[in-house]
């Protein structure tokens, strides 16, 4: 029987090739997009699922509450926190300290840069990573111990035993290999190829470590991870440790005026549910997963609705076939099974084409998402199973209603040419079209709003000059060497024709300086500290970046007094400190980041960070802490400028790689997530309108077929082609207009919510909805007109002769 159904399905598919092509095209587009999104979403949701102790491992996070009522949640903790958690809370089975680390490896006269962490001896106890060589219990116990990956072992030592071997880090420090671990899970928020012992840091800086462990409650620059005794006790343990800083660190709380509470973030939630990374590891967003997943479902739904419309539109052509089958004894159940088989045939065929199309689109999809999927990922058992279950759901969803309609024709009426159609069926088809265009018009509106926000962010005056400025990074030069030769490289850059200014600094707009620094401004007590972003700079920073002074002066080059006790703040800081306007701030005392001094200048507010954030208090002061050289140039091509900067680099920092960026492009990196959202939304809008138009085409074909005799009579009585086109178009355009009206409030609410993530944002103007509505109506009119004109031009004699 199934074989017979498939034969009939093939004959009908071939006979109605144009209908089949439209129907299949929409299904293929919908399934392909949904499969690609589900591939990406499954990968995102799989992060940190492979930890041996996963359910019991949590990161300790800190909510810092400032005296003015502001709060900020960080992924780090104060130094004494872990010590107290380990000693005083039996619910915690094990705890480890982690810290950022960016060592430079010197090996056989070459320099290498690997992803690295500093961790204490309990690291492997908490995370459960197995070692191929060495003891997990002692590998990170001693100072200057180093655990490396099997890939690094092969890279540096070949096939010989690596234990006991030495690697030289940062030019002169010898680390002994004490362990080798295998390949780590790719989907993890922790990324590292080597781990140095935390004891190494304390061995090099013993006084700093002693002071930090004793009183550094608000020095939030270490990570604490805990393994709980019971994986189900996260909330109970969190309640117990929440006020640890307020209780055990009460002296620091009283001294600063800051308050702090602790929370536990389960490791499997870190990647998607936390905006804060660990040691520069990757961070995802559950909102992005939900947004893209929802759009994928909507597109698949539109394709499914389109299939239903086109299937019912073909019912007129198949009515006699159904009538004959019923006369010959076919039951309604058998007919339903036949039509579901036909739907299954088309869905499976569409899925096969979608699979091939997915393989073809894999490379651009990887570029868009930043993933590295291969064809093996596409044909993996889990992903093919996901596609198979999608089709299993799609077949009854897309095929059941058409099967119900087609099998319900009464044979006597059908053979006489009277096709009974219920009002409910007509209402359902109209509802399907309205639903399709609600989604399509909504996506168009959302795309326009996102585009306007991106244009606003890219064109807004930022308060500094981001053009013609190259940033040269010195992060891959050892700390001492980079600072010893800072002035030498600055002088070499200033000697290049076309270079106007050069600044050696810690950060530039678009990058974070020393965030969350305590500040004690004049007029506030020592127990009433505030939090600022402190940026170590040199005397050339303000003019190099193109910042504008609102009051006071710039730093004086060569001034020892400025180096020791001068600050420049922005207008936001003057207001935040309670000093009023810029002029009032001049000469005021300020203590922050280990320096006491006075304000000598106030900058006009500028955007240190993207427009997602409001302008916050920023403090600049001369200090030797160099990460970047900012180079402003004019009258010279960018390529030539880079060549000259590279030539100077090779003389000053020979053997170390020079990394460079352009300030405007570097600042723009903060909007990568929003740019991807906009691009994806635009693509989804195009697909939705294309697939929705196919569904509309199905309904106009259905309408034309149902009214074929009426059209013939009207033409015989003198109706014009334009009149008939208007007749067929009016009711359908009303459906599209209703869809546009219905989607406006929902889209406004969704996009208003989306815009709230930006401190500076566009208003949602009424004309956006008008433009989107006009676009949807024009597309609908074009789609309807193609078939309506064809029906209007048909020979009325043939229409009136049809039975």
UniProtKB/TrEMBL annotation:
Keyword match Cell membrane: yes
Compartment(s) of residence: Cell membrane
Domain of life of the native organism: Bacteria
Cellular component GO terms held in the UniProt record: plasma membrane
Record-annotated ABC3 transporter permease C-terminal domain positions: 295-408, 683-792
Keywords for the protein's UniProt record, in alphabetical order: Cell membrane, Membrane, Transmembrane, Transmembrane helix
A Pfam family this chain is assigned to: MacB_PCD
Membrane topology according to the record: Multi-pass membrane protein
Molecular function via GO: transmembrane transporter activity
Parts of the chain that traverse the membrane: 21-41, 291-310, 335-362, 382-406, 427-451, 679-704, 716-744, 764-784
Protein name: Putative ABC transport system permease protein
Predominant location category: membrane
Domain MacB-like periplasmic core: 20-243, 439-625
């Amino acid at each position: 029987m199934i074989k017979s159904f498939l034969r009939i399905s093939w004959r009908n598919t071939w006979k109605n090739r144009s209908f089949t092509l439209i129907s299949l095209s929409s299904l293929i587009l919908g399934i392909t997009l949904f499969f690609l999104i589900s591939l990406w979403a499954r990968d995102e949701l799989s992060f940190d699922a492979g930890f041996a102790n996963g359910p019991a491992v949590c990161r300790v996070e800190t909510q810092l509450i400032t005296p003015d009522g502001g709060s900020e949640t960080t992924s780090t903790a104060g130094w004494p926190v872990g010590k107290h958690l380990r000693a005083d809370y039996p619910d915690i089975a094990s705890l480890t300290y982690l810290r950022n680390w960016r060592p430079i490896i010197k090996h056989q006269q070459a320099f290498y840069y690997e992803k690295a962490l500093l961790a204490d001896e309990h690291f492997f106890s908490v995370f459960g990573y197995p070692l191929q060589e060495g003891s997990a219990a002692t590998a990170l116990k001693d100072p200057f111990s180093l655990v490396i990956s099997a890939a690094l072992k092969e890279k540096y030592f070949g096939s010989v035993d690596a234990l006991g071997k030495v690697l030289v880090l940062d030019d002169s420090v010898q680390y002994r290999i004490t362990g080798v671990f295998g390949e780590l899970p790719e989907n993890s928020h922790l990324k590292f190829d080597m781990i140095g012992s935390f004891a190494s840091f304390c061995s090099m800086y013993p006084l700093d470590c002693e002071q930090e462990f004793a009183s550094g409650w608000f020095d939030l620059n270490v990570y604490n991870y805990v393994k709980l005794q019971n994986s189900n006790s996260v909330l109970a343990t969190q309640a117990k440790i929440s006020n640890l800083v307020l209780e055990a660190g009460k002296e620091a709380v009283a001294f600063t005026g800051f308050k702090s509470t602790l929370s536990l973030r389960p490791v499997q939630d870190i990647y998607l549910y936390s905006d804060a990374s660990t040691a520069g590891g990757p961070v995802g967003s559950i909102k992005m997963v939900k947004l893209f997943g929802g759009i994928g479902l909507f597109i698949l739904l539109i394709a499914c609705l389109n299939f239903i419309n086109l299937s019912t539109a073909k019912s007129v052509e198949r009515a006699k076939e159904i009538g004959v089958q019923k006369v010959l004894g076919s039951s309604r159940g058998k007919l339903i099974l036949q039509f579901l088989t036909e739907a299954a045939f088309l869905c499976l065929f569409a899925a096969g084409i979608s699979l091939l199309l997915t393989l073809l689109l894999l490379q651009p999809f990887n570029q868009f998402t930043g993933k590295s999927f291969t064809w093996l990922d596409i044909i993996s058992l889990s992903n093919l199973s996901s596609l198979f279950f999608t089709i299993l759901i799609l077949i009854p969803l897309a095929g059941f209603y058409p099967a119900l309609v087609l099998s319900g024709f009464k044979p006597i009426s059908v053979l006489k040419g009277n096709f009974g159609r219920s009002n409910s069926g007509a209402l359902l088809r109209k509802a399907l079209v309205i639903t399709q265009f609600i989604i399509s018009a909504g996506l168009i509106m959302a795309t326009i709003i996102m585009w306007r926000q991106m244009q606003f962010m890219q064109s807004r005056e930022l308060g500094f000059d981001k053009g013609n400025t190259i940033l040269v990074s010195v992060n891959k030069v050892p700390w001492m060497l980079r600072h010893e030769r800072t002035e030498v490289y600055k002088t070499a850059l200033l000697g290049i024709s076309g270079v106007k200014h050069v600044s050696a600094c810690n950060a530039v707009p678009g990058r974070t300086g020393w965030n969350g620094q305590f500040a004690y401004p004049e007029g506030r007590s020592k127990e009433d500290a505030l939090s600022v972003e402190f940026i170590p700079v040199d005397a050339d920073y303000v003019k190099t970046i193109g910042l504008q002074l609102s009051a006071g002066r710039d730093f004086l080059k060569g001034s020892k007094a400025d180096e020791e006790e001068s600050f420049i703040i922005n207008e936001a800081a003057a207001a935040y400190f309670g000093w009023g306007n810029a002029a009032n701030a001049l000469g005021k005392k300020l203590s922050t980041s280990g320096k006491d001094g006075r304000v000598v200048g106030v900058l006009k507010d500028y955007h240190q960070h993207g427009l997602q954030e409001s302008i916050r208090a920023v403090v600049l002061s001369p200090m030797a802490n160099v990460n970047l050289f900012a180079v402003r140039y004019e009258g010279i091509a960018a390529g030539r400028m880079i060549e000259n900067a590279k030539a100077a680099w090779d003389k000053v920092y020979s053997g170390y790689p020079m990394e460079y960026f352009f300030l405007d492009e570097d600042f723009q990196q903060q909007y990568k997530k929003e740019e991807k959202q906009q691009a994806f939304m635009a693509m989804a809008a195009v697909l939705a309108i294309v697939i929705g138009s196919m569904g509309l085409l199905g309904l106009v074909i259905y309408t034309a077929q149902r009214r074929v005799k009426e059209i013939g009579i009207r033409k015989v009585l003198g109706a014009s082609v334009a009149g008939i086109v208007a007749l067929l178009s009016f009711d359908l355009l009303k459906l599209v207009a209703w869809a546009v009206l219905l989607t406006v409030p929902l889209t406004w609410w969704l996009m208003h919510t989306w815009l709230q993530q930006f401190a500076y944002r566009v208003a949602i103007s009424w004309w956006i909805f008008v433009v989107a509505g006009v676009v949807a109506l024009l597309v609908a009119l074009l789609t309807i007109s193609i078939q309506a004109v064809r029906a209007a031009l048909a020979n009325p004699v043939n229409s009136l002769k049809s039975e």
